Amino acid sequence: MSETYQPKKIVILGGGIASLTTAYELTSQPGWNNLYEITIYQTGWRLGGKCASGRNLQPHKPYHEPDYRIEEHGLHIFFGFYENAFSLLNQCYEELGGNGPFSTIEDAFKPHSLIVLEEYINQQWINLPFDFPTNSLVPWEGGGKSSIWQHICTTIKFVFQTYTEINAKQSQSKNCLETLNQQISLGKEIIEFLLEESLIQVPSQLIQLLLQEPSHWGEWLENINNNLGKAVKDLDFTSEGMFLNLAYNFAQFLPQNTKNHKREQHQFILKLINRFTKHFSNYLDTDEENFEIQWRLTLIDLALANIQGLFVDGVLNYRCLDHLDEYNYKDWLRKHGARESSVNSAFIRVLYDLVYGFPEGNTNNPQLAAGTAIRILMTILFQYNGAIMWKMQAGMGDTVITPLYEVLKRRGVKFKFFHVVKELHLDQNQESIAEIAIARQVNLKHPQQEYQPLIPVKDLLCWPSEPLYDQIVDEEAKKLQDKEINLESYWTPWQDVETFKLTKGKDFDIVLLGISIAALPSICQEILQAEKNPAHQKWNNMLNRVKTVTTQGGQLWLKSTLPQLGWKMSSPVLGAYVEPIDVYADMSDLLPRENWPSEHYPYNTAYFTGVIADPGIPPRSEYSFPAQEQIKGDEKAVNFLTNHIGHLWPNATLPNNPQGLNWDLLIDYQNRQGVERFKAQYWRININPTERYVLSVPQSTKYRLKADESGFNNLYLAGDWINNGYNSGCVEATVMSGMQATRAILQQCFQIKYTKKIIGEWDCWIY
User: Which of 56, 65, 373, 553 has the greatest number of CB atoms lying within 10 Å of its CB?
Assistant: First the structure.
């Protein structure tokens, strides 16, 4: 390296997970500080983006200390397949030496297995619990990957076993004559099928004899069993399940890589599945009142539609899942034979709930790209490590963002808090970013020093829910508090103390855009209008086609324990409940990390989340907009708690309203009465452009740009909104995008190969 070499300057815009991941990966490169320096610009006083959390700093007299309750944007839980995210955090914990009581990542995350779905049957909600089995893996070490063919085989086996259980129960109610007639009819069909597929060779005279004399079938079929070998081992030729069992046995002998399969092999398996499906439809046509059987039939119906779709639409041979993203998942299931009742069941509704799949907050119009839906299902259900879910043992800011921030600060990354990105300006040829307009929100008392954003809570370094005003000049700090100014709000009336421009060549050489997509129209106007550069049309397409939605997240602190509230199972994560507040989780394990006085100590914490009707993004000058929308959100929350809490907590209601919450159970320092106690809880609406959840709607995937596809030679992209290969609004996808941005920057700007493997990238697990 030449002695005159000057490190390049990388500016990272936005302080969410994608930006922090990129900074972490860039600074993990040996000798990085000789190659580049990194500065992160962030609005307000904290990092994390949609993953940010805060601690309440407001004291309540006569107590001298705040309760430091955790205040989240919503419900945040990691899934067991998040190998990239967990690996990143594990490295942070090891380098940092932990965060207070969390010495390792194993202290900060605990496994969770109980997921409860809600189904509405005969005018009442019914719990459908699934306690997923654990395995010996841990997500920060990984190993839970398996191919799509393994998923196919596992699903066929599951359908066969579930059907066998149902069939055994149904057979008990049939008389001997019915059973014999069914076996004769089925036996004839099986013989004809085996002959059609040339699996057996039998003279036509013998066929006629066998069809006329069913009593000879047992001995003859036993001989077939011996002749056909392993593929027909242990088959029951008197059950429709024989078709599935044969399909599973045959599939097991094929290579894991489906590109090595022959089309005829897939066609044969599909024929077997279709034969079974034809018989299975008879079960669906019956008026089955047993809910235990009903939901199993629904699962089989959905599994069969998924398997058939993967075969018929060619995913197993030559296509990727992205090709299916032209369809809405519900429509794709219908296309491949799923019943309407199955498509609208809790098993599918919870998937849409998980990804807030309701454009404009309209829960009557669920939209989720089919390929993305299948990817989510396969990774969540089949690729988890240890447990299907892992719960953070404090706020997400405390367990995830703090370790990242602390490591980056130690490594020498600069942080510019209270800096708002206003606009990206292009050079004359519209080929690169030439300037970045920045607004500084406040003056610090010690401007030569960085803002110090963290506070200790029981030895845990945490992010506060408001700025640490003692670091801001007194006059501004007083105004901010007196006028209750929210510096994170897009609609704040606060006047910035300074505006300036970063200049290419002086202040930056490379730009990483990590700000979420809903905020980009105002920031990237010149990019959208850059007619000299054909990339401008791709940007317009992306911003028009990739949708976002506003969400809500609520937290309640209650005097009673979960069993005292009337919940009869262990601590749940629950979905597919009343729209739009469709997800609930017991998060009482977080209470020891808060600081409640004994007189007001809660014994249960409940988190709720869902979408809200989308109010849009009005001009910045609409200063009253957030308060008006918060009032609407609170009213909806109160309505939910008044009319729908009794099913979850039957002991938390009053005799005059068995579905409504007994408000006296809510913790309230001021001891307000009735519904007024709701004001002491935490319920927020996420309406800021950067807070809006990024959707995976049909026909949008092809318009997402990759990390290195900005079309401008010094601009790179990161976030859950880019084409990162997972393309769903989750932490894992966001971390993957940051790793991809790092790879592109290192290779294209420094000719350095990025050697870290990105787990699951571009569905590499399919084959």
Answer: 373
DSSP labels, 704-765: PPPTT-SSSTTEEE-STTS--SS-SSSHHHHHHHHHHHHHHHHHHHH--------TTGGGTT
Report CA-CA distances (Å) from 154 to 26, 157, 244, 382. 39, 5, 12, 9
Distance CA 168, CA 651 (A): 38
Q: 3-state secondary structure string, 73-94?
A: CCCCCEECCCHHHHHHHHHHHH
Tokens of 222: 């036993």
pLDDT, tens digit, for every residue of 150-164? 999 999 999 999 988
Q: Nearest Cα to 376, choosing from 356, 361, 359?
A: 356
Residue 618's contacts (CB-CB under 8 Å, 6 or more residues apart) are 491, 625
Consecutive H or E run containing 129? strand 124-131
Contacts for 120 with CB less than 8 Å, ≥ 6 apart: 126
Of 414, 567, 372, 343, which Cα lies nearest the Cα of 12? Answer: 414
d(CA 440, CA 443): 8
For the packed helices 263-285 and 148-171, what is the interaxial angle rounded to 10 degrees? 30
- Listing DSSP states for 527-554 in one string gives HHT-TTSTHHHHHHHHHHHS-EE-EEEE
pTM over 0.85, yes/no: yes
CA within 13 Å, CB half, 260: 9
Pairing outcome for strands 460-462 and 455-457:
antiparallel
pLDDT of residue 488: 98
Distance between CA atoms of residues 439 and 460, nearest Å: 32
- Residue scoring higher pLDDT (634 or 195): 634
Please compute, for residue 565, the number of CA atoms within 13 A of its CA located in the half-sphere on the CB side: 31
Residue with the bigger pLDDT between 168 and 186: it is 168
Confidence of residue 319 (pLDDT cuts 50, 70, 90): confident
- Taking a C-beta distance cutoff of 8 angstroms, is the pair 353, 309 a contact? no
What pLDDT does 206 receive? 45
Q: What is the chain's length?
A: 767
Question: Which pLDDT belongs to residue 226?
Answer: 46
pLDDT digits (tens, 9 = 90+) for 387-405: 999 999 999 999 999 999 9
How far apart (Å, rounded) are the C-alpha atoms in residues 730 and 724?
11
The CA angle 121-285-266, to the nearest 5 degrees, is 110
For residue 440, give the 3-state DSSP assignment.
Answer: strand
CA distances from 70 to 392, 680, 706 (A): 12, 13, 35
